[in-house]
Amino acid sequence: MNLNISYNWLKEYVKTRKKANEFANLISLAGPSVDKITKSNEGLDGVVVGKITKKEKHPNADKLFVGTVDIGDKTIQIIFGQMAVVNVGDQLPVAVAPTTMPGGEKIIKSKLRGIYSEGMLCLDSELEISQDDKVTFFDSKIKPGTPIIKALKLLDDTIFDIEVTSNRPDAMSIVGIAREAAAILNEKLLYTDPKPNTTIRKKIKLNVSVKEPKLCQRYQAIVMTDVKVEPSPLWMQQRLMSAGLRPINNLVDITNYVLLELGRPMHVFDYDKLVDNEIIVRLAKKGEKILALDEKEYELASNDLIIADGKNPVAVAGIMGGELSSATSKTKTIVLESANFDSTLVRRTSRSLNLRSDSSNLYEKNLSPEGTEAAISRAIELVRELAGGKVASELFDKKDYKYKAKEVILPEGSVEKLLGVKIDNKIIENNLISLGFKVVKKSPLTVRVPWWRDNDIEGAHDLIEEVARIYGYHNLPMELPQGQIPIDFTNSIDAFFWGDRAKDMLAGLGLTEAYNYSFISEKLIKNYLLEVEDHIKIDNPLSSDYEYMRTSLVPGMLQTVSENNNNFDNVNLFELSRIYLKNEGGLPNENNSLTIAISQKEDERAFFELKGMIEVLMTKLNIENWNLMPSDVSGTWQAGQVMQIETDNEIIGHLGMINQNVLRSFGIKRPVAIAEIQFSELEKLAKPESSYQPLSKFPKIELDLSMEIDSSLTYREVVDLISNYDNLIESVSFLSEYHSKQMESGKKSLAVRIAYRDNNKTLTLEDTQKVHTSIVNALTKKYNISIR
């Protein structure tokens, strides 16, 4: 929560001579942070008192006037409209061009309908000294040319935009920030609880009852009469506006002033509008309605807490008052209310009614009921001072609790243990005392928590935090770790490590993660040509669509592809999750499985993109000794378009194109490439670190080999023979493959490039050629190739 805090106002409660910037820096280091600093009179330097000496109709505009204005050292010409009844001889605020107004508007000399205007006559709202669109007129005692700041006796002030965390409602006020500042700056706190004169001259009847003491722990009220409702003094209006509140009249402004000063919501009722001179705190009756101060009518629920008179609701407790009981210019007698309401109830009612206010914002943060007395006492003082009110009843105080201050023990050595620095016990005590805590025992150190921190301080750890910030976080030692930080990959790899790494990798390749249910229907099982009997049937399925535990991620993935194909040209998905395999006599075996699906308009690329993704995955998981080999599996796969993933001669998955009949059963019209991998097996093979070899000091020799081979012979079979033939062979890379009518039937041409290197010496072409010739002989013997 952010507050706009007046520095002048703040200095009434904490003794300091620090400049605004220095104050803000120190407070931000150890307490609520100051986000922004602004000057209160910024933009008013170019505004002076001007006297209208001549006023004429604009020759080119019916609704404009041309005025000659005396601004002291000279006269200027200003074009103005019907902003107010302005006559010759009137003195009012004038912005002299060029200048920039508080709201950022630039005033320059310019032509309006052919006539120059050298400034602007100003409304109070344009000067930001009030929110009303009215003009302040000055009497003849104020000389033309007098700066508006001096004429209005505006004090120079600095406004801090301060962020206060939600767990610190005690600091959401002028006095709260003053308490913080006094402790942080080691200055004297000037605040004392108000003690107004409550002598009753003429007693007026008022009945106060609380029907729901659990929801309203404390309710205080007092009647004051002979009040005079009028605008608040300028100093109060300015303070309210600096905090972002609109001045209304002295009574409403007083309650808002107390809210800002003490952080305690208050309300004022017109006594004469309360039926039977009664205030009742109760739950609303079903169907009851209230016209709130925002001029909207709200229907109340039976669990909403309200303030009512003898007949109707007059306020929604802790949120907003009612229009029908509000104070007006005719009000003579009032009831001041200061109460404490259940935070959960206020939050719930505020949300259900969609009605929020500054009061509800504070009540939701669990205020202490001990704070109501200071608030109503301060309000009584201000009503007496600013509205001439007289106390006309006892100060009603209905409460359903007995306050007992919380005490917290700070064990010996706990500060040093947690902060890593030894702080003298006397400093610890003084830091806590400066924040309002009271030391009741020195060994072990036991402190009494002030009432305004009741809901914030829970244990010793909170006290240590208070000690640390007042001592100064910047004073705590900063030491970089010495030596090399040990890394134990074995202990750092948990059950989710490889899954998280794979997911990040696949997402980086442009795939979107899918989340499908672990339960599937009999229809999906049969559509993917699986046996229903192999699946675990659920005794109490949610519906027939979730009747079996899945043994493969592919059926659910194909269903997802089907649902997305009509909306997207490219559907690139993956899912890494559990499958459930039958285990006779026990719980099912839960294995991690990975499925990747690619369905694109350019379907000829799908298989090769999928193959590339598998290669990237294996590389990034540092898995070695794996191969992609042609597979003769059929059924769900398109014959001749499927490969098996092998590691150490064990098949751990397949990738290929899904059979057209299977796709039709899922309603998919576009070819789909699928990879299904036993991820549990990949986790066993994956390594956290890559294996590296130093670069060879000796050059390599590359020789190309072009051959004619049987069409049934795969590139992988040729490469495997060459790669494992001799230690001088560093790598084999693909160059080309093609078929030609001039070639013998059943034959194709394959060209590869073989890189040779000896890591112990410079390899000669003669030695290389010997190995190369030997490879050709081996290929000829095994595969009956012919060299082209």
Explained architecture:
The protein has 6 domains: 68 residues, Phenylalanyl-tRNA Synthetase, Chain B, domain 1; 105 residues, OB fold (Dihydrolipoamide Acetyltransferase, E2P) (Beta Barrel); 193 residues, Phenylalanyl-tRNA Synthetase, Chain B, domain 3 (3-Layer(bba) Sandwich); 69 residues, Phenylalanyl-tRNA Synthetase, Chain B, domain 1 (2-Layer Sandwich), CATH 3.30.56.10; 189 residues, Bira Bifunctional Protein, Domain 2 (BirA Bifunctional Protein, domain 2); 87 residues, Ferrodoxin-fold anticodon-binding domain (Alpha-Beta Plaits, 2-Layer Sandwich), CATH 3.30.70.380. The chain is α+β, with helices and mostly antiparallel strands and 788 residues long. Strand 9 and strand 10 form a beta hairpin. The protein has a 7-stranded mixed β-sheet, with helices on both faces. Strands 5-4-3-6-11 form a 5-stranded antiparallel β-sheet.
Set out the fold topology.
Elements: E1 2-6, H1 7-10, H2 20-30, E2 33-39, E3 47-57, E4 65-70, E5 75-80, E6 91-96, E7 99-100, E8 106-107, E9 110-112, E10 115-117, E11 119-121, H3 124-127, H4 148-151, E12 158-163, H5 174-185, E13 207-210, E14 216-225, H6 234-242, H7 250-262, E15 267-270, E16 278-283, E17 289-291, E18 297-299, E19 305-308, E20 313-316, E21 320-321, E22 334-341, H8 343-353, H9 358-363, H10 372-387, E23 390-391, E24 396-399, E25 407-410, H11 414-419, H12 425-434, E26 438-442, E27 445-448, H13 460-471, H14 489-492, H15 497-508, E28 512-513, E29 519-520, H16 522-527, E30 548-549, H17 554-565, E31 571-581, E32 589-599, H18 606-620, E33 626-630, E34 637-647, E35 650-658, H19 660-665, E36 673-678, H20 679-685, E37 701-710, H21 715-723, E38 729-738, E39 747-756, H22 765-783, E40 786-787
Parallel strand pairs: 13-16, 28-31
Antiparallel strand pairs: 1-12, 2-12, 3-4, 3-6, 4-5, 6-11, 7-8, 9-10, 14-22, 14-23, 14-24, 15-22, 16-19, 17-18, 19-20, 20-21, 25-27, 26-27, 29-30, 31-32, 32-36, 33-34, 34-35, 35-36, 37-39, 37-40, 38-39
